[in-house]
Amino acid sequence: MTMQDPTAMPSSDAETLRASRLAPGTWALLVLLAGLLCTAEAVRREMGSVRADMRAMQVSMAGFAQERLRADLDLAAQALRAMQTVFLGSDHVDQAIFDRYQQNLRANERMHGHVVTAFARLHPGPSYPYELVTPMAGNEMLIGFDSSSQVENLKALQRARDTDTVAMSAPFHLVQFKDRPGQPVLGVTVRLPVYSHGAAPATVAQRRAREMGALAISLRLEPMVRGALEGWILEFMHVELCDPDVPGEAGVIYASEPGLVAPADAEERRIMFGGRQWHLSMWPRAGKTSYTSVLMVGLTGTVISLLLALLLWTLANTRRRAVEMGLRMGERFGESEARFRALNELLPALVLLADARDGTIAYANQAARRQLGVAGGEPLPSLFADPAQGRDALEIARAGGDWSGREALIVPGAGEPFWAHASLARVEVDGIPHLLMVANDVSEQRKLTERLGYQAAHDELTGLYNRREFERRLQKALATLEKDPSASFAVLYIDLDQFKLVNDLSGHMAGDQLLVELVHAMREQLRPQDLLARLGGDEFGLLAPATGAAQARALAERMRDCIENVVFPWEGRTYTVSASIGVVVAGETGATLKDILAWADSACYQAKENGRNRVHIYREDVDTTRRQGEMEWATRLRRALEEDRLLLDYQEVVPLAPEPGDHAPRLELLLRLRDEDGNVVMPGAFLPAAERYGLMPVIDRWVIRTALANANRLHPRGAELRTFAINLSGASIEDQGLADYILGCIAEYRVEPRRVCLEITETVAVRNLRRVVPVIERLRAAGCRIALDDFGAGMSSFGYLKNLPVDIIKIDGAFIRDLETDPVSRIIVSAIAQIGHQRGLRVVAEWVDDPRMLPLLRERGVDLAQGFALHRPERVVFQRDPVRPAG
Description:
Layout lengths: L10 H9 L4 H66 L5 H11 L1 H4 L3 E8 L8 E5 L16 H13 L3 E2 L3 E2 L12 E10 L8 H6 L1 E10 H9 L2 H5 E6 L9 E4 L11 E7 L2 E9 L7 H25 L5 H25 L3 E6 L5 E4 L1 H7 L14 H12 L4 E8 L7 E12 L2 E10 L1 H15 L9 H17 L5 E9 L2 H7 L1 H16 L7 E4 L4 E7 L3 H16 L3 E3 L2 E3 L2 E9 L6 H17 L5 E3 L4 H21 L3 E7 L1 E2 L10 E9 L5 E2 L1 H10 L3 H14 L13 E5 L2 H4 L4 H12 L6 E6 H6 L1 H13 L3 E7 L5 H5 L6 E4 L1 H5 L5 H16 L3 E4 L7 H7 L4 E2 L8 E2 L12
Parallel strand pairs: 21-22, 25-27, 27-28, 28-29, 29-30, 30-31, 31-32
Antiparallel strand pairs: 1-2, 1-6, 3-5, 4-5, 5-6, 7-8, 7-10, 9-10, 11-12, 11-15, 13-14, 14-15, 16-18, 16-21, 17-18, 19-20, 23-25, 23-33, 24-32, 25-26
């Protein structure tokens, strides 16, 4: 503002003012009102900005609180799933085993409010007394306690049992704390059923029939909520967590201030878990919102409006009173300046006034003196950590420009630098240009924002970027590549070999520590511009900008070598791991994020296929195309299993010289798949992918259970069916639990074991004789029949035949197909039949596609035959569409 001498007013101006219809006081009042209106509008906008910032922080904290609470509940679900797997994989789980697994899961450390993990076995009645409890200290009274006596517990248990999913109870008073002084302790239980051994039950009736008991984790609600929300959330927010399905005060799970009613603008979230939902309400605590910037704007605008009104009052008076009014104005200005300084001394904001000519500070209010350590005479730009920003601010303000609402790092004379929300404007005092700076400390708010942003983009264990941030950076690199094709980059997909062994032998804590040490070693190999991220449990991604194929291979080899050289000691054991690394060099436009990640994964898989601990660079070739096709088939197979789209056909096995009365059908079951469009796919298209990706055991068990469950609905003649053969893969026959599974299904569905024939190929049988023979002997002892398929293809068949306890041998179709024209094939078929009969075995010929083969097979003593000449495959009866013919 400019202070002028009223005696210097020209006479023409004074005469104009004197001739005005309005009095000088009226003009001054109008200017004051206009200034106050402008100030009110500025205050309204600043108030809106402050409230918007608080609302944004409230929304962000509510989302973060929702995620933290859900994460604790998800930890309980994961722990229960892990313990369910223990019960499925072991016939006997005692207290020591139960304690050890819980210690490995670190339930007490990882779950806020964890009270107990327990197993209740189903007893007639029904009743569910607790049998295993950990930790035992403080929970001793639960041993033998019937959990079904608690209504909330029983409802959750039954819901979990009928759906085979995690279920959570309504809040109730935990029985462990009923005899302790103080208020009853409110908690919940998270439940998961334990079924008897076998495939996962598919219906409610099957789940109830195979129920063994139930696992439970009890959580104290108040420490769980406080543990999840401690810190900024509880400091700045009122929090209320309710279960809306529980009426009255019993449904209040947690309230930071009991008795407070949530306002209408409270931020609300719903937490869905275990078949229940919680209602989360959050609203700011009183006194935590800073309105200093609003107060500063209001005070500054009001003072400036008053000064402008006073100035106009002075200019509007007549020359006759110029000297008198000049003296009075001087006195009033002194009083206004004193009031201005008094008001500024009370403001919490930092207020500084500097001479615009040289930038030296002329005035600093109390807050600025205390926080900055300045009193006057210091250059204003020296307060900025960035000198260039300070100089720019001064130049803009000197020129009358707008430099407001900026964030700057301020360096005090003593103490730590801090971030401030600052504004700088040009004013005039006594005709001298000055610069007025007003700033607010926003360091804490900035730290909170940075912390939330860091957690959203980084892996908690290693501190590396997480998958979401890695994909965002990769997408940005692809966008740059689209604009500049020369901006090539490389992506490395790093998968640790045999890392699971460390977790299995020494626990997840050891695995986590090993990952931290491996990350430290890998970081030492990186350039400043390289970006390393953790994509999964033991998978890492590396984005290397400006990298060609040769550089990418060299970088990958360095990473592989450094991982291999890490020696990790843990509790008396020493571990080393290696890594398989897939490399993709992106130097062309058109590739998508999905393409790059799929190529990198494919190259990594190829590295594992080639022997592990090696580097493979992606390129378009036959192996890669086959690998991608198999990956797609593996995904489609998993979806087909989930949607129950596998099919069974049967082909009859016909006796070549039937005995009188021997008319009961024999058949072999053949696998098919119905694709997404309803077309039937033959097994040659999808079984290679199933074998490569370890899906054969799941498929075999589906065939076994489906066939045995529908044994009398496979063939039109139903119960007359004499035998049905099921093919077993190598991955299944070497599974020591296969025999238990088959015998369990036979008992469950009450199928006569002599009707069941299990076929294994010769190559599978001889590949691991020691593991296969015990499985075969158990099944034969129970009454099942064993067939050796593709006999003769293994080149050493006769030598192994005497060591394999089988009932049937099926001659490889390659010998049958050439039987009419090839003398060697006729000799081999005759020899197999003769040796088989000497061993007391039945001999079957496969691939009989020509009726002219039948007399030749009879002459050579073959007992049975199958092929298109005798019967073309048909769909099993129970899967036939009633509106379409079979097949």
